[in-house]
Every structure is written in C-alpha cells, then in structure tokens.
Amino acid sequence: MGKLEGKVVVITGANSGIGLASAKRFAAEGAQVFMTGRRVRELEAAVAEVGSDAIGIPCDISKLHELDRLFDEVQRKAGRIDVLFANAGGGDFAPLTTVTEEHYDRIFDTNVKGTLFTVQKALPLLKDGASVILTGSTSATTGVAEFSVYSASKAAVRSFARAWILELAPRKIRVNVLVPGATSTPGWHGLSPDEKFNSEMIRAVEATTPLGRLAEPSEIAAAALFLASDESSFVNGSELFVDGGSAQI
Fold first, then answer.
1. Per residue in 17-40, pLDDT tens?
2. Active-site residue numbers?
3. pTM of the predicted model, to two decimals?
C-alpha cells in the first residue's frame, strides 16, 4: 500500500519542476493524479511521463473560468479531492525603479489571485480532512534584491494559510505551506537571461546555503508527500522549509 493509495490529488503547475516531480511521486504512492499547466504540449508530455492513469487538464489559474472547467472535470471523473497541491506560480526580477503595472498584475494574478481561487473553487470537492498544500518561497522570509513583487506575493500565500485553517477547522481540512529553497527547475534557471548569470546565481546559492547546493525537484516532492499523507495528520498552518538551511541563518 502506497502512502496515497486510493487518494485523488490535484496539482496545479504540474507540467515541470516541483509540480511534475510531485505528480510522479504521488502517482507512485498510489494516488489518482490530476495535473494542470498552461502550456498544452508540455503538459501532455508531463502526463505521459507520470503515467499511472494521470490526467492532464490545461488551466491558467489566473483565469477563473478555466478553474471552473478544471474542477468540473475533476468532479466528473473523480467526484472528490483528497489532496490539493496549489503549486502553480511564477515571477521574475525587476528593480523597484522599473516595476510596471504589468509586472505586478502578472505575478499577483497567478500567485495570489490564482492560489486564492484555486482553493476556493476546490472547496465543494475537498473531502473533510483533506490536505491543502500551498507553495511558498524563502523569498517571503528573506530579502532578495529586485524580487520584491514575487516575494510579496508569496508572503500573501503564507498569510492565506493562517486564516484558512481557522475557516476550514470545522471540516478538519489542513492547510500548510511548502517552502522550497533554490531548486534546479526550468523555472528557477529561467530567471537567468544568459548562462553567465545562471552560473553566478548557482554560485551564490552554493555560498549561502549550508548544504552548499541547489535542491533537486524530487527532494521537494518528498516533503510535499509528507504534507499530503496521513503522516502529517497533526501538521496544520505550518511552513515546511525545504531549503538546505538557506533561510535559517
């Protein structure tokens, strides 16, 4: 018996990186996995990689009608959700002097509005006692130059968890925040405009992380599995840092 045997799991932002690694791990532990992503071809490839009857549903979480379509499909095919991993998000660098309304809207529409309405629209399908996992960021705790809008959006996500565990207490639904450190994903490496800058980012992480390296997506997925499973049955409203110690010093 796997740790998620018979569970229905929805993972947003599952077409690459942490989301894809988590979909693989959850499926291997017996879950029926629904995977979402904005890029259709990439999502299709990710679903094929996961196998195990995983189901891909294209969805941009910043668009509420697409979230409606996502959960209508989950309702039709599974009828419930045991684990919701609201993982989709993104951001990029912008100095305070050059932040634009478009930059702000793009990041907050996905990371804040998208996360909020992902959870809200999932509520009718979430079983009592379900686990909700939100993806946070160490940048919500530590200062990162030219990353203020993204950092603020992830601080909002952390605040969601504190409030939602009170609202969802009657249903025993747990809400926790998974906080990865720098992780070797396409999204993280994509922050760099060129290979030289990427190498500099890697060296900076190695110098400021006690474990001296980036995380692998599978390591973050292992922590997500803990929060998804009954092994974390009394963990609620917490931040689980999986950062090699970078935000702890």
1. 999 999 999 999 999 999 999 999
2. 150
3. 0.96
